[in-house]
Amino acid sequence: MATAVFFHAHPDDEAIATSGTMMLAKAAGHRVVLVLATAGEQGEPVEGVLDEGELLGDRRRAETQRSADIIGVDRLEFLGYEDSGMIDTETNANPTCFWQADVEEAANRFAEILRSESADVLTVYDSNGGYGHPDHIQVHRVGIRAAEMAGVAKVFESTMNRTSILDNMEAVLEALAATADSEEAVAELQERRNEMEAGTFGMDQADLTHEIDVSSMIEAKREAMLAHQSQIGEDSFFLTMAPEVFAQTFGSEWFRDRSWVRGDQPFRTDLFAES
């Protein structure tokens, strides 16, 4: 059995992007470690969700623990940096935020965890952080450098399949509009489509190497996402999606193996399989 470390930027990223893969790994007997760079202090909380005097970062740490329990995480760690906020916002200049962290220092901090776990597999984000968030880009930079320091050979970039999403977007939008009656949800997906068409969201299918079918874990994945109540409210499009639309949208998780070019070969389906 192997040890896999999943490196994410903020609470709820793990549930949305890789929780199905994490649960499959746990079910197969592997050790699953979750590391988050920040506690997501700059997130936008659902109105009225925080108790009086409660800090958002504290709430999101607790939500991450609940999500991790659902997933079956063996170890949860926070690197201790502050959330940098969205690109080109004032919080990007915070000297204690992850975006401003020295890559070598942060990589050393993360590499200590990788070494302590004798990590066999590491997941980070693609070089654009999926959609250009500063903390996601920094996860890529810090994670790659830490893998070099700790000698982790198998490094995978978690991302979105831009080609597949665009191919299925019209059907998803139609189903969502018919079942959710949510103009906000439809508008959000349309905005994502514009980003994908501009090439700033996810990666092209030709550049991906692994498709992990997580449909067997789809209900648990949804529960892991909903553990993040401060970010995913009752009117979120995650909740308003019909089950079949949710499964179509989140039933596969996509990765790029940094050491292998797929070419015209089929997608690999296991991060732990021998090359």
Describe the 3D structure.
It is a single chain. With 275 residues, the chain is of the alpha/beta class. 43% of the residues lie in helices and 15% in strands. The chain has 10 helices and 7 strands. Strand 2, helix 3 and strand 3 form a beta-alpha-beta unit. It is globular and about 50 Å long. The two termini are 16 Å apart. 44% of the residues are buried. The mean pLDDT is 91.
Strand order of the largest sheet: 3-2-1-4-5-7-6
Q: How many helices in DSSP terms?
A: 10
Quick one: how many beta strands? 7
Reported for the largest beta sheet, the result is: 7 strands, mixed
Report the average pLDDT across residues.
91
Shape: globular
Short description, anyone?
With 275 residues, the protein is α/β, with parallel strands linked by helices.
Layout of SSEs?
Layout: E1 3-8, H1 13-17, H2 19-27, E2 31-38, H3 56-71, E3 75-81, H4 103-117, E4 121-125, H5 134-150, E5 154-159, H6 162-180, H7 183-197, E6 210-213, H8 218-226, H9 237-240, H10 243-250, E7 252-257
Parallel strand pairs: 1-2, 1-4, 2-3, 4-5
Antiparallel strand pairs: 5-7, 6-7
Helix pairs in contact: 3-8, 4-5, 6-7
